[in-house]
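Readers of this paper often ask what the protein records in our data store actually look like. Such a record has a labelled line for the sequence and another for the backbone structure tokens. Nothing more is needed to write down the fold, since each code stands for a local backbone conformation. The record that follows is passed on verbatim for readers who wish to inspect the format.
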Amino acid sequence: MPMILGAALLIYVFVAIGIYKFVKQKTDNKWIKRGALAFFILLPTYDIIITNTLGAYYCLTTPSTYVNKKVEYPISIYWEDNVYPEFDKKDRELMVKNYLNDIRLKVMALGAPDGKVYVYQYKDVSQEYYQLAEEYATFSKELQKLRQEFKKATDSYPPNWKETRDKYLSMDKENDVLRNKLSALLNSFELQETIYDDKNAMPQMNYTVTFNEVRLNPFSRKFLYSDETKIIENQTGNTIAYNRSDSPFFYNIAPDFALGNRYYSSWGWEICESQSYLYYNGDGFKYIASYGSAKHAVNLNIKLYNKYIKGEK
């Protein structure tokens, strides 16, 4: 495909040059000649100019990512994903696996495609699990410190760098053992699933995470895809974390060569470089925001391609 496109562009350049020379021979009007030149330049590149102009506008006029409250133990969260939409069985299993640990998060509520809400929590978790979790957390902090020492050692290679390396690799293996042991112990407990007819029928969660597509105007939607994530503190109704993402579609002269099944381009666009993902901001890590991203079995970019390009439901 890249070779075919390259050949097509080469042919286009030769044809454009030929026609432009023909126009120059037939007229002395400088505006006609300039118009012809502009036409052949803009024909394959107009979308690049429009996309980046719109991108600059939206980056300057839309809210920036923010996290204004640190919550290390949210305890209960309801996810409402209106882009996929919601969480099917595989998605729910993935969310439980990634987030529900009965320490920071004890109750998880997930909207389903049929409008029902699935609430998950582990039952009768033993004290042994909490003790092991505390041990793992302490060990992980020590490993993090050693990781920084090891990184510095590999930058300068002091005389004892091999000792630091060996200690780090040993602790890293031990950390993996602890993590796997903790995961196995958690999975040994009963996972309770309760189904409610809708979100109004379920118990109130401490926080709600919403994920919605931003419906740009009809013209902008031809060049950009936009979505936003909010984390809402249900007791106060305040949005304590927010992120909006504006992504360009692939350019006409640079389509999706790698996979061919993505809806928008997620790299190489620097206009919005000040935007950051919701789980991080300039002041440092805020734990609540790590829950801003939802886990799905199908990547969002591919999901949107299947939805809008292939017409799948």
